Amino acid sequence: MGSILSGVEAASLVRSLPGVDAVGLEARAAGLATRSIKKESKAEAIDLAIGMIDLTTLEGADTPGKVRSLCAKAVRPDGDAPSTAAICVYGAQVATAKAALAGSGVKVASVATGFPAGQVPLEIRLADTESAVREGADEIDMVINRGAFLAGDLERVYHEIKAVKAAAGDARLKVILETGELVTYDNVRRASFLAMHAGADFIKTSTGKVGVNATLPVTLLMMQAVRDFRAETGVQVGVKPAGGIRNTKDAIKYLVTVNEILGDDWLSAHWFRFGASSLLNDLLMQRQKLKTGHYSGPDYVTVD
Asked: Where does the secretion signal sit in this chain (predicted)?
């Protein structure tokens, strides 16, 4: 799947997109954030959110032991809680994660393409992607070249995404827009459509490595983009907010927004993910409270 447009056509199309009504967008997000759900629905929402998490460790000090420990937590977070959707690691740890997760159904995602800045030559980004796939990555989380995008070189960004998509082969491609660096809602919309026309399987807000990461208005805007893209092309694309979503209350706001804007077609880990690690601990504690009526204390969950 993917766009049949050329780079020139895709760039022209996204440049012609109408401007975003910022006041209306933020008001809609604020309204959705106030929605409440019943206790029985909350239990279902917590399990749904757990199953949508890409449990992530992206530190220079990552070791095979830390990755194996995180993989064990992903497979069995707590008791009868569902497994998370994926483990997200650097390419150097993909083989370790793949072995630890064998037979579990939990996917291995690898950040590639010079994460988090993306400021390396394209041939190195492609080699990084190909290496991660050879090691067993099921998914590739790539970063776009924000410098090229902000300079207006949309055709270059389009062709680079297409090249990474080809290098990823059968692995699903999540394209990180790094929305905190795109400055405006108009840029977020343009980058979303550019990535989708270039073949993204997911569009993702952030690396988690900058000051401003996922926000509800930005994610709502990206949801509207994937909805409109499917209406125009018949191609469904996933959405992944990442960075800054730390508690159950916030996760439920995002799920309510998915339900309102996109509906049941996107309410699964195949089409919606949370890029988070600390979120899982809060979900587990809230889950325990619903079952027992009390919190189990700070030592109840493992420290990532």
From this structure: none
pLDDT in tens, 220-230: 999 999 999 99
d(CA 111, CA 281): 23
- Residue ranges covered by each domain of the chain: 7-292
Nearest partner of 167 among 219, 132, 193, 119, judged by Cα: 132
Whether 98 sits among the annotated catalytic residues: the reply is no
* Domain 7-292 listed as CATH 3.90.230.10: no
Residue 204 bears catalytic tag = yes
36 pLDDT more than 90: no
Establish whether 240 is a catalytic residue: yes
Average pLDDT, the chain: 93
The active-site residue out of 141, 201, 250, 282 is 141
DSSP E strands, 41-144: 53-56, 86-90, 107-111, 139-143
Catalytic residue among 54, 240, 250, 253: 240
Active-site position among 204, 250, 253, 282: 204
